[in-house]
Every structure is written in C-alpha cells, then in structure tokens.
C-alpha cells in the first residue's frame, strides 16, 4: 500500500481522478494478456505529460516504490504484471499523434497511441508504418517499443526497432532526456534509442516517440499454398528467398491451426492438408504480379498440393485476417491458451516445427503451430487448462524443451514477445550468464535503485512476490 | 612505455612478430585519417582470435593500459588516435569471411574484412551488403561498426547499424560474449548489438560480426540534374520524397565541389551551375525506368537547368565514382582538408547549405559542401593549412557555428563519422549533459577501469595527453 502522503503527492501531480487505489479499480491492472500471472498493484496513475511522469518517478524513487509502466497490457510475456506491487503507470492518456511529417517521413506520437490508429492516420496520407503486431488494434506504440514488437511484415520491412528514430524518456531521477530525432543518419554518442527498444520498462519511461515512415506500397496481392507435409512448406520458403524474392509476408499454419481458423472464419480450407503458407507481396503492380507468379511456380515445384492466388485485395485481406485470428480461434478450444514465440534462423524452420510436434507428442499435449515462416518466428500454441496442475507441469516441461531446441538450432527464446516474467528463467540460454550480468549493470546505470519494473527480464533471487492465485 | 614483463606476456599471447614497439613502427599508428591529431602508442598488437583478444584485454585491464582498437584507421573523428598512449589493437589479421549464408541471407566475418571485399564476395553470389562508406576500399567492417558508418545508399537502405545482426565481443575482463545472431526477430534481453554499433571502441572489442544481406537489385540507373541555385536542388529532393519515390542515392554537390571534381575526373560538368544532384535508383528494371522518368520530370518542374540520364550503367558508375572522389579532389587544393558531417532532417537541407555558405564567408574560409542530400547528411569541407594557426582558429570557430546551426535546425553534430576526439566538445549540444552522464555510466558497466579508448566521445578533464605536435 502507498502511504496517504505519497497518495496526496501523486494526486497533486496528476489530479485526484487520475490516481486509482480502490481494490476493484486495481484488479483490472493485476493482469495482462499473459495467462497464469497476476498480482495487485498499490495504485494506478495516469500521467498526461513528461513533466508529470518526471514528478511521479522522483517520488517513487525517493520512496523505493516499484513503477510498472503499461499501455494496453497486450504483451504475452507477463511484462506488465505488478509482481512487487507498486504503481502502475498507465500511459494511455498520452495518446496524441503530435505530427506526421510528410517531408521527413516521420510521425511523432505519444506512447499511448494505439498502433492501428497510427496505421490509419499515416495511410490516409499515403504513408506506411509497417510494424503490425498481432494485437495492433489494441496495443499501443509505447507498448510495442517496450516489448520490441514484431508482426507479419517483419521479413521485408523489419520490426518495431527498425522504425524508432527518436525518443523522449524519463529516468527514475526525474531527468527528462531525448535521444535520436528526425535525422536519417545520426551517430552522436551511444545508440540510446535502440537500447530502450525492447527494454520492457526496466530502464526508463518513454514519453514521446518519433517513428520512421515509408511511402505506402502501391498495391499488394496474396497467395495461399497447401502442403501434404511440413517440410515442403519450409522448403518453399527457402526457395523463394534463394530466388531473391523477399515477400512482405510469409505466414505458416499447421493442420491444427488450419482447422480452428477455418471453423472460426469459415474459409473452406482443405483440411486434409498438413500445412499451408499464406504469402503476400506488395509494391509496384508490375513487380507484385511478377513476384506472385514466380512464387506460385516455386510453391508448385516444391510440392504444394494446391496454390491459389487471391482474386481480389478483399479476398487477400480476408485470408490475412483469418491468420490474424489464429490466436483467438485457438483460444476457444480450451480455457487456457499459452502462445510462445521460439524463433530460429529461417533455414531451420522445418526442423523446429518437427521438434515442436515431437515434444507435444512426448508430453501428451495439444500444441498447434503457426507463425511468421519468413522470419523463422514460430508461435507454438498450447491449449490447456491452468486449473489442471498436472497438465500445466507437462506444459512447462514441454516449453522448456522447445526453448532448448530453438537455441540448439541457432535460434532464440523470444522473437517478438519479450522476456518479462514468462521467459526470464530461460534468457541465459540465449545470452549466457556474463551477458545477463552486463545487462544488469546497464540497468543500474539507468535505474540505480531498481524501481523500474523490478523482477522482469532478470531472475533475481530475493524478490518480494505478492502473486494472487486465481 | 609498456614494461618488459607486459611485452613478454603480449608476445606469449600472440607471438613475437605480432607485437611492435619500435618508434619507427609505432609512428604509423600515431594518426588516422583525421587531420591535426597525432599521438604515439606504446605498442601495436595484432591478435588473430577472440581468445588472443581476451588475453590482451585481461592483461591491459590488470595493468591499466589503454587499448585503442583499430582497423584501417580511415575514420574522420580522431577515434583511433592513441592520445593516452597504450596498446593499439590492430584487428586486420582477423579478416576472414567465415560464411555467406544464402538461406538466411547473412554473412559472418572477422572485424578486419575490408568493406569492398565483402561487397565483392556477396555480389558474386547475387547478394547485396548496402552500406558503402566513402572509404570502403580501405575501411574494415569492424571500423564501420565502431563508427556507425554511413554512405551513399543510406536513404533507401539505411546504414551500417541497420545491417549488424549479431556480434561476438570481448570485455576488458576478458569475457567473450555474444549478442544477436541469424534470427530476423530476436528480443531476448537488451539490444547489445546496436549499443555496440557506433561505440567507437569504448565499450568492448568486436571479434566477429554477423551481417544482414539483401538480394542484389536487378538493375540501376543514374541521373544528374544541374541548378542555377541551391534551393531548387533541395526542393527537388523534397518533391521526390513527397511523390513517394525513395531513390537508392541522392547526392548533392555545390559549385566549388563540382569544379574540383570536374578538374579531377574530367567529366565536363557545366561549371556555371551553382549545384547539382546525382541520383541513382535501383530495383526491378520496369520500376527503375519509371522512377527515373518521374525523377527527371520532378527535377525539371523544380527548376533544374539541365537533366541528363546516364546512357549506360558504366556512365552512371563513372558519375558516382566522381562523387566518391570529392574528398580526394578537394584535398588537392590545400595542405589540410577538414571534412565535417553536420546533418539535418531532409527538409532543412537548403537552409543548412545556406548557413554553411554564410559562415564560410563570415570567417573568410573556403568551404565546399557536398553530401548525401536524401539523408540531410552534408559534408562541409574546409580547405586550409594546419600550419597557419590564425586560419585554423577561424576554421574551428566556423565549424563550431556550423554545429550550432545543425542543432538549431533539428539536426545532429555527426551523421556518419562519429564523435571521437574531433567532436566530443560538441556532443552535449545534441544529447544534453544528463544523457552524457548516462552514457558514461553505461561505459562503466562495460569497462569499469576505463581502459577502452579512453578520452574518446566524452570530455574528461584529467586526461593524460601525449600529443606529438607535427
């Protein structure tokens, strides 16, 4: 609990109505989109400016109160669970699109802007913000940056980190700093911008963002290819890249995912098939046409049992929307859906999918796999029930084995979700212990008293945990 | 001077012939490509592996000996001058191209690989490493990463930092760490890869690099446009971007640069013109043709007095080679050539060029300006004579004013050269003092005893300087 004095000071900083501390109000901030984690904060505060954030952080730093910065809480790593209580800093009031600069191709926004709203605003001006994380209709840009969010267009266009040009951020000391800006080239000092991307609220609170934009591609076309096995789908992806085509999107779904997606969206997919690829290319019309034709030919040459080119942009959009609904569709099957994002170099995709199948069978679990095949970024998804402790133990063992398999194949434990609580016990597998120590020394350089999102990313033995068992 | 014991230990680590300490040998490592800086190291050591680097760093850390890591020394910021003596760590023996992975589109190389050699190796396989810093025929990949090097293709393709996917690096403690890898998506912990890019050898020694590659563009075409003033050239650049075309290269030269380049390369440029743009587009042939036609039309609509499309790839290559020769050409005019890289957001280009002209006139100096117009990355270049102390003082004042002007226009003090010695007194203009303190705390997290390239990037008052006056 925060003291009456601290509460009064918070109210003086942001106004009475922007400080919540009644249990019913706190409950909504005790969880995020990650299953099986929950903890109550002491208060929720809604700042409206960098100055207010600065005041809150100074106060929290003085009183050693944890600060959990949060947008819409759509992350899948438990990164915004207030496991050590403290203040949830809800950034959703700072949701202004300050500027869309058509000369420099930048957008400057508050961290609370919803990703899809930014898409809409820039596309109306013929511009393009490529990162499209699965939760983009709800997630915020600040949250996307905190988690280093990815999406379906990563293969051709990169991910959130590739579009953050400048930041305003606040340290626990209350200092308001800036890094980067609108310059396409800038090497003045260390790259603080990219260090903050993916730091999950453990280094600073981001209060303003300058993003890179591109011209909106002229057109796009979509193609689906169905396979009687997994290997041919993976081989098709390799062959497309080897033929020097980089599609905007190359999505993969296994049979289990195809079934639930088809049931959910009524697409009439050929459910006897073992896997499918959903490929989109964008760009100038003549190039898109040529690439789609070449991709169709490559798919057939690599064992596709069926290849269909979407007849219209609407049909293409419908197919992609169905793929976007994969998580929602899968989550209807069982009470608890655990979505992972083990990622491997593109060339190891088939091996990784087979490993996931083998592990699911070994532990008697239902795991469907879909994901961004072009990136090697898979989402093995387990449908389970958190009330079944025995099964959950098997789920945990299976995912541990999946992480080890990804690392063995040169991959990583998380491609686009982040570490948070969910994967911090496995981070050392990717980075090694010495890197983790170095990262913690970097954290101390920003946050010497450790108030920013304590207990996330790094495993600390002596944490004070107040987890509410649901 | 290093002690006989330390010398013997270095010799034991790398072999006798890879430790130099005779004055005549040291002299060659007392300077880099930056005018007016020079200082003798105590020794030059040539490691052949990460293990050798580890041993050298442990030894240096124990004895508090500065380590100045260096490739070909082509940097223009004084970043590899051993101002506090110590050991120059020459990485040129670690120049193997370990692997070009055509499935994952990556190259894994030693830091000592010469940039142009990498270009040649990957292009022979139909692949493309876009970063092309001016010194690419001599510079090394390790040096490019240390400085965050840019080049002519930054507008469309980004710069070195956008192509570094993974690193192996060694801390002063001797620990050999890895970050990133071949995964297109990877958010496992803080982004150490990008923190090391542009850190100028102050954080760690890079011993292996994994770079992102692209398919080689099918074709390219080049166009030149001449202008009777500066503003029309800048307006053309803005209009091209506003029409949603992103050319691979948009280079600018003012009249002074045109004259010396023409004299140097015999191009027959129309020297009565005040400025010119050199524009290259690459990609699929039909798109390149269409873009070049549209760019030609836009240039004419925005006041170009002449527009010429290169008739062949050879003619285009000749024009670009002439632009690449700008620094060499200018350096023939006077004994000392000082090349800066003040950078502004693209939309402020014309203002910045005019500011440079005004400042040159104010201080009675000959400053020619050329650079990467698409990036707002200018190279105001002063032809002077370092033996003329009075003029050099005016040069220093003029550049100080140029840096202030860049910052005032939302720009930065260095777009692609780095801070080093040359710009460390101005870094605070861009970052603010609090950011500099934070960066120094980050440095301490890597290098607690401050042995790595001491005195670079940050202004430290109590440095031990042993500068040899030339």
Topology (SSEs and partners):
The structure is a homodimer of 470-residue chains.
Chain A: H1 4-14, E1 19-20, H2 23-27, E2 43-45, H3 50-63, E3 67-70, E4 87-90, E5 97-101, E6 106-109, H4 115-123, E7 127-128, H5 141-147, H6 154-157, E8 164-170, E9 176-180, H7 192-196, E10 205-212, E11 214-215, E12 219-227, H8 231-242, E13 249-254, H9 255-265, E14 275-283, H10 285-301, E15 306-309, H11 313-324, H12 326-330, E16 336-339, H13 349-362, E17 367-372, E18 377-384, H14 389-408, H15 427-431, H16 433-446
Parallel strand pairs in A: 2-4, 3-4
Antiparallel strand pairs in A: 1-2, 5-6, 6-10, 7-11, 8-9, 8-10, 12-14, 12-15, 13-14, 13-17, 16-18, 17-18
Helix pairs in contact in A: 1-3, 8-10, 13-14
Q: Total number of helical segments of chain A?
A: 16
- What is the strand tally of chain A? 18
Indicate the overall shape of chain A: globular
CA distance, first residue to last residue of chain A: 21 Å
Average pLDDT confidence of chain A is 94
Q: Into which percent range does the helicity of residues of chain A fall? A: 25-40%
Low-confidence stretches of chain A: 461-470
Largest interface, Cβ cutoff 8 Å: A-B, 88 and 88 residues
Order of strands side by side in the largest beta sheet of chain A?
A: 15-12-14-13-17-18-16
As a whole number of angstroms, the C-alpha radius of gyration of chain A is 22 Å
Summary of the model, kept short:
Two copies of one chain form a homodimer. Chain A has helices at about 5-15, 25, 50-65, 115-125, 140-145, 155, 190-195, 230-240, 255-265, 285-300, 315-325, 325-330, 350-360, 390-410, 425-430, 435-445; strands spanning about 20, 45, 65-70, 85-90, 95-100, 105-110, 125-130, 165-170, 175-180, 205-210, 215, 220-225, 250-255, 275-285, 305-310, 335-340, 365-370, 375-385. By secondary structure, chain A is α+β, with helices and mostly antiparallel strands.
């Amino acid at each position: 609990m925060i003291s009456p004095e601290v509460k009064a000071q918070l109210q003086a900083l942001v106004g009475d109505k922007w400080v919540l501390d009644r249990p019913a109000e706190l409950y909504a901030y005790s969880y995020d989109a990650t299953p099986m984690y929950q903890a109550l904060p002491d208060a929720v505060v809604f700042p409206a400016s960098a100055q207010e954030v600065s005041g809150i952080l100074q106060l929290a730093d003085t009183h050693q109160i944890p600060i959990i910065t949060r947008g819409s809480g759509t992350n899948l790593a438990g990164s915004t669970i207030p496991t050590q209580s403290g203040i949830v800093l809800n950034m959703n009031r700072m949701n202004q699109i300050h500027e869309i600069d058509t000369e420099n191709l930048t957008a400057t926004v508050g961290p609370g802007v919803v990703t899809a709203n930014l898409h809409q605003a820039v596309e109306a001006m013929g511009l393009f913000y490529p990162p499209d994380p699965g939760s983009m209709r709800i997630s915020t840009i600040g949250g996307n940056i905190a988690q280093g969010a990815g999406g379906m267009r990563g293969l051709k266009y990169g991910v959130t980190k590739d579009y953050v040009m400048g930041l305003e951020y606040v340290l626990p000391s209350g200092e308001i700093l800036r890094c980067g800006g609108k310059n396409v080239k800038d090497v003045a000092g260390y790259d603080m911008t990219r260090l903050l991307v993916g730091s999950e609220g453990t280094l600073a609170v981001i209060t303003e963002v300058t993003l890179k934009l591109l011209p909106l591609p002229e057109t796009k076309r979509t193609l689906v290819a169905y396979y009687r096995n997994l290997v041919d789908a993976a081989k098709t992806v390799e062959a497309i890249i080897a033929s020097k085509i980089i599609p905007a999107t190359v999505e993969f779904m296994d049979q289990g995912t195809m079934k639930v997606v088809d049931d959910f969206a009524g697409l009439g997919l050929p459910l006897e098939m073992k896997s499918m690829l959903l490929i989109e290319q964008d760009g100038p019309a003549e190039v898109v046409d040529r690439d789609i034709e070449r991709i169709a030919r490559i798919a057939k040459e690599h064992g596709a049992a069926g290849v269909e080119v979407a007849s219209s942009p609407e049909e293409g959009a419908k197919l992609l929307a169905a793929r976007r609904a994969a998580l929602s569709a899968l989550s209807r099957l069982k009470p608890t859906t655990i979505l992972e994002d083990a990622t491997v170099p593109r060339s190891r995709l088939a091996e990784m999918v087979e490993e996931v199948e083998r592990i699911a069978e070994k532990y008697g679990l239902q795991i469907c796999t879909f994901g961004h095949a072009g990136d090697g970024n898979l989402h093995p998804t387990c449908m389970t029930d958190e009330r079944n402790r025995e099964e959950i133990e098997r789920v945990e063992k299976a995912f541990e084995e999946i992480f080890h398999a990804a690392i063995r194949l040169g991959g990583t434990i998380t491609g686009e979700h982040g570490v948070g609580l969910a994967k911090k016990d496995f981070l050392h597998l990717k980075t090694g212990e010495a890197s983790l120590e170095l990262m913690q020394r970097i954290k101390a350089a920003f946050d010497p008293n450790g108030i920013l999102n304590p207990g996330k990313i790094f495993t600390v033995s002596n944490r004070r945990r107040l987890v509410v068992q649901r």
